[in-house]
Model the fold of this input.
Amino acid sequence: MSQARLPRWIFAYGSLIWRPDFAYESRATACVDGWVRRFWQGSPDHRGIPGAPGRVVTLIARPDSRCWGRAYALPEAEQAQILAALDQREQAGYERLVLPLTLEDGRRVPGLTWRASEQNPDFLGPASTAAMAAQILASKGPSGPNSEYVLRLDQALEATGHPDPHVQSLAAAVRAGHAQHGYFKRL
Done:
């Protein structure tokens, strides 16, 4: 896909919602239909380490579902540089995917996102909320504690007005685990 034909919009459904770290011209709450967000991807590079990965989100195809997040319109002059940095950030199993986005004002636009498929070597797949929370509470990587990722994502989705039940239940389990171990810190 040539650079000129890439979508102007980026769709964020994980840490890019609360930590975009790139210039953008505008942002909007947005959704993609036919997808759900799940903590099924291993993170051996940001929220964990090789051999002890954290858990981060990926998109899983699910008919009749909707995943809410943020869309960012990239400045054309900086698009190539921003996408190169995002390709570096979204490594360890993530690949570019173009999806139709619906912006909060009703406009439909193509959007670029990064998705970790079930075929990548760091894909962890489903687990119980308790098992995922235990792994998250034990994981820390160069980008910080895995629990911070979960709690910040939960807060960011709440702020968009579109909380995610999967994220909410996992965040509640992580908060309970922090409280049980005496080091709970409200983000």
